[in-house]
Design brief:
alpha/beta
């Protein structure tokens, strides 16, 4: 399907350039009309956001759009994406909206939509909304007596914290654990520290002073060095880094080594297998997950189902095949027994629970396998057309031949940034690096032509 607005994770782009008040207004109207089909009752939408300066502008434009088609709006304020999904279902809303560009810096923003079941919208529903975005909707607006209202909900933080804690056994405590928590100056800067503290952990926070401009800047899951330094400085047992909207997480062990999404899924898979909690004997992950992870799961008697990149595709495969564990190497981990989207805080809590049960160091529990050498590089690109150029095609074919039987090559346009991602992995790091460099060089020349 050709998309004009929606990418792999909602609508995303530069604030006030692509993500303008006009677009947000139209999204509110179009999505409201798609989900406002029963004229016998008032329809309800919940809206959350992260801490970007542009969130105010987009929030109020969305409110105008939704209320103009007769929907009631419940404003949550800064809240993690998984909290918005959970509250959409909990508050019996017809639609949930998260204003966030996830791990991007503050200059970008985005609009993510959840249906009444708290899952991200299907391609078909997004296409239905896209059709309306370019139309004049004046004739379909609500009459003066049918306009919606908006109000702020005050107790949402407590609701989400209690929900997160209930994913653990009642007697689980993190007493005695010193945890460094990096909130990425983002949406979880209040709820995540409080949840871990209530579970008994000693919590040391960084990235918990958002100012509208510093979200994900040198902190968070995409910039773990600050967390590594703080863990070593404080002699902490573990470090946890969320991203700007807290739907992804990476961790750092007591030695300062990064634990990515593949390792976290391996920890949970082993723990759940031992406790009989896996719905199916396997995990769903994307084509970007390390081959070492796949081999590790095979050693546990579990299989790996691979999907296209994007947590929405992981979730779709999980629902289709009945799996309850899946995710991405980047730290999106979906635990479908508890939620409908990635939840960084809940994932971290599951990993800490596994550490507590085994009563061993984080480095022993969470370093489940040695990943194969993997190289990922991004090439700035105006679009995917460079991949069709003859020199690029030749470089890719040559790379696949060199890695045949000993590794993998994945090349794809990003769904969230104007780049083409080139990933190679294999048993020989020199060959992998050479293959990726050759393809990136060919792409760079094609873009410059």
């Amino acid at each position: 399907m050709t998309r004009s607005y929606f990418g792999t994770d909602g609508i995303r782009g530069r604030a006030n350039q692509k993500i303008t008040p006009e677009l947000a207004l139209k999204v509110g109207q179009a999505a409201g009309l798609v989900f406002n089909r029963d004229s016998e009752r008032r329809h309800r939408v919940v809206i959350g956001k992260d801490t970007r300066l542009s969130g105010y502008m987009i929030e109020y434009a969305l409110v105008a759009g939704f209320t103009s088609v007769g929907m009631e709006v419940l404003l949550l304020g800064p809240m993690p994406t998984p909290a918005v999904a959970m509250l959409t279902r909990s508050m019996r809303a017809d639609l949930g909206v998260m204003i966030s560009a996830s791990h991007n810096l503050y200059e970008d923003n985005g609009i993510k939509l959840f249906g009444p079941d708290a899952y991200k919208l299907s391609d078909e529903t997004e296409a239905e909304i896209e059709k309306l975005l370019d139309r004049d909707l004046t004739s379909r607006l609500a009459g003066p007596h049918e306009l919606g209202r908006a109000k702020r909900v005050e107790d949402v933080r407590a609701r989400y914290i209690e929900y997160a804690k209930r994913t653990l056994p009642r007697n689980m405590s993190f007493e005695g654990m010193r945890v460094v928590l990096d909130c990425a100056n983002g949406a979880a800067y209040k709820v995540a520290p409080e949840a871990l503290w209530e579970l008994g952990a000693e919590v040391i926070t960084i990235g918990d002073q958002p100012d509208g401009f510093n979200i994900n800047r040198d902190v968070g899951s995409t910039a773990p060095q600050a967390l590594r330094d703080k863990v070593r400085e404080m002699r902490a047992d573990v470090g946890i880094a969320l991203d700007g909207d807290a739907d992804r997480v990476i961790m750092v062990d007591e030695l300062g080594h990064v634990i990515d999404g593949d390792q976290l899924m391996a920890v949970v898979a082993r723990s759940w297998r031992d406790e009989g909690l896996l719905a199916k004997p396997g995990v769903v992950a994307t084509i970007m997950s390390n081959l070492g992870f796949e081999r590790h799961l095979q050693g546990l008697g579990l299989n790996l189902e691979r999907t296209a990149v994007g947590d929405r595709y992981v979730i779709e495969r999980m629902r289709e095949l009945g799996y309850n564990l899946g995710g991405e190497q980047s730290g999106h981990v979906i635990l479908s027994d508890y939620g409908t989207t990635g939840d960084g805080l809940v994932t971290a809590m599951q990993a800490l629970a596994a550490v507590k049960k085994l009563n061993r160091n984080v480095s022993e529990v969470c370093r489940c396998f040695e990943p194969l050498p993997q190289v990922l590089k991004n090439v700035r690109a105006r679009g995917p057309r460079s991949l069709e150029q003859a020199p690029v095609v030749a470089a890719i074919e040559a790379g696949r031949r060199r890695l045949e039987g000993s590794g993998r090559l994945v090349i794809r346009p990003s769904g969230t940034e104007p780049v083409i991602r080139v990933m190679g992995e294999g048993d020989d790091p020199e060959i992998v690096g050479s293959v990726v460099d050759d393809i990136c060089d060919a792409l760079t020349r094609a873009e410059a032509a």
